[in-house]
Amino acid sequence: MTSVSRRGLLTATACTSVLAVSAAPATASPAAASPSQRPSAAGIVRRRLHLPSGIMTGEASKDSVVVWSRSSGDGRMIVKVTAVDDAFNPARGRGRFEKTVESGWVTAETDHTAKIGVTGLPSGSQFLYAVQFEDESGVRSPAEFGTFRTAPEGLRPGRGQRVRRPSGTRQSFVWTADTAGQGFGINPDLGGMRTYRAMAATNPDFFIHAGDTIYADGPIEAEHQEPDGQVWRNVVTEGVAKVAETQEEFRARHRYNMMDHNIRDFYAHTALLSQWDDHETTNNWYPGETLEDERYTVLDVDTLAQRGRRAWQEYQPIGDARALKPGTSGFEDARIYRKIERGSQLDVFCLDMRTFKGENTAGKEAHETDILGEEQTQWLIDGLRDSTATWKCLSADLPLGLVVPDGKAQESISNTDPGKPLGRELQLARVLKSIKDNGVKNVFVITGDVHYCAAHHYTPENAAFQDFHEFWEFVAGPINAGSFGPNKLDRTFGPEEVFSKAGPAMGSPRDAAFQFFGHVDLDEQDLMTVSLRDGNGEIVWEKQFEPQS
Q: Cα 539 from chain centroid?
């Protein structure tokens, strides 16, 4: 793999022919071009598509990736991918691996968003990719360029075995949660959502957005009063000044975030794994809920969740790359809980703690209640049991041991009772017990949601429920939202707060001191270093972990 940084490489090659995509028609148009869309007699294009929300990749595995973009009008997306190594010559415009794929026809039905899977990629490689949209007359938009890396393959050992990694197989990722919350949107005075720039500076292989990718229930106004009296100024666009209820209003929230140049640059160069939580719909929601909120005219949460999920899925590069075949629209229902294999070092289990969640109650039922649902619970148990990766990361959109109140009820798994598991805790206890019973090792949890950062060490000797292996949970966020915390820990599973750092209640992200993200680095020997960093990129806590054999 080349040692040149991805952004530096892109700058050096974007103006060469390496990723140039022909402006000539490639395939037959679905309809005849209207006169206003055809080139004029003088050869001047009267109207040309463009990419108003940038480009991004997601679900990057050892041999595939999903590419996403949005067009300014009807068209088809064309993606060219070129592998880059030490022998790569930008001037010649050739790489050791090249592939071009096209989507189906993209229309307003998906808000002109498109996704396409690119498969058969070499592992452990760096790629340049170019994205264009072609209109019905065959005229193509200017290309936008990005980079991504496939996972290092390595050799998957048998369970309980270790293998020595070849040089160059290390990888890293970052995670956080909560974008544009509490009225804090894109502030042009501060250079936009600049904590995304701090994450980009770590040059990670991929990024996990662990939920609250938007705040559909948080209006964005032109000015927002900060606790210290300063005025936060927001860029404001149509559709973000009220709570989202219509399909168009949900889409508007995603379009808004993609206006930020920090997000667009980061996503163009870092493959995304995306999860949802509550604010993609409305605060602390659960299926079957009826709202009591005067801001809403649509009170049925299931209706809001259906619209919110559609918009979220349209704007995230989520899906099975092999199912997103060339020539398809790119919008296929995708299961939110899923496993992403990152070579022999790492399996990431992205959880969905919203779709199957039971009603928010005090959480002290004697019987098991849902946080994952039965199907997802069994999928997780089986997936962890069968994983041969050295490290198993559970990416949870809600913390496991922190108490998150919802009025008189609990939004969280934890219920404030430090005794034996009750309610949702019983479902978590079943998963933790299965990890021990199946001899699964090297499991850790990352999460967000609570707007501060923390490191929690769970040990059975300190717990009321003791039938599990010790593990760590790392909390990070927000990325551009108000600060809160810290929350109380429930002692049922014996968590110890090894570290936490929280800002003032409803604190502003202005100086980024209380915005947080996490960083995980895996080296060639599978040593894992976890750090928690503030919005300026400063490390506030760090620890190295050696895997158990």
A: 22
pLDDT at 38 over 90: no
Average model confidence (pLDDT) for the chain?
89
Establish how many alpha carbons lie within 13 A of residue 103's alpha carbon, considering only the half-sphere containing its beta carbon: 33
Closest CA to 341 of 389, 309, 274: 389
Cα Rg, the chain, nearest whole Å: 23
CB count in 10 Å sphere of residue 408 = 8
Reported pTM: 0.91
Nearest to 526 by CA among 171, 28, 193: 171
pLDDT of residue 44: 58
**27 contact partners, CB below 8 Å, separation of at least 6:** 76, 102
Query: Which helix (DSSP H) or strand (DSSP E) does residue 13 occupy?
Result: helix 6-13
Q: Please report which residue ranges of 223-315 form alpha helices under DSSP H.
A: 247-257, 261-269, 301-314
**Residue (of 353, 372, 371) closest to 363 by Cα position:** 371
**Burial code of 342-379, b = ≥16 C-beta within 10 A, e = fewer?**
bbbbbbbbbbbbbbbbbebbebeeeebbbbbbeebbeb
Q: Which is more confident, 10 or 235?
A: 235
**pLDDT at position 19:** 46
CA 197 to chain centre: 16
Q: Cis (ω within 30 of 0) for the bond into 25?
A: no
b (16+ CB within 10 A) / e for 156-180:
beeeeeeeebeeebbbbbbbbbbbb
Question: Does 486 sit behind a cis peptide bond, omega within 30 degrees of 0 on the bond before it?
Answer: yes
For residue 92, pLDDT beyond 60? no
Strand pairing category for 126-134 and 75-84: antiparallel
Determine the pLDDT at residue 333: 65
* pLDDT at residue 317 in the model: 95
